[in-house]
TrEMBL record:
Keyword set, alphabetical order: Metal-binding
Keyword Metal-binding: yes
PANTHER family named among the record's database cross-references: OXALATE-BINDING PROTEIN
Official protein name in the record: Cupin domain-containing protein
GO molecular function terms noted in the UniProt entry: metal ion binding
Source organism of the structure: Microbacterium oleivorans
Domain Cupin type-2, first and last residues per copy: 41-119
Amino acid sequence: MRTQRRGEDALDWRMYRGSGQVQVERYFRASTRLGSSVMFYHLEPGAEEGVHHHLADDPASCSAESADEMYVVTRGEVVITGGPEPIVLRAGDAAYAPHGVPHGVRNASDEPAELVLVYGPPGV
């Protein structure tokens, strides 16, 4: 059994040309054998993860391999961007972006927002 305390693998990151910084906590990055990775995002008002996608062999991709992503909002309200229309998610809501689909997340509210991000190979 391993444990990780909040802040042990955290960084402030300007992601994919988004506005402001996203505080990112990466969980068990160096010690897990799970097929998926789990991260925690803290977004102050106005902060965003810019629109991006994950698709192998695509030079515009933000990663060398294909990956699916799922966002689960745990606090506040965020806007999922990148699709034909923005989608508002609140605490308890989730969004799923299959590999190759453009997506991003923005805190357009006046309060901090937090979410859990799970990403990994398609179909895992």
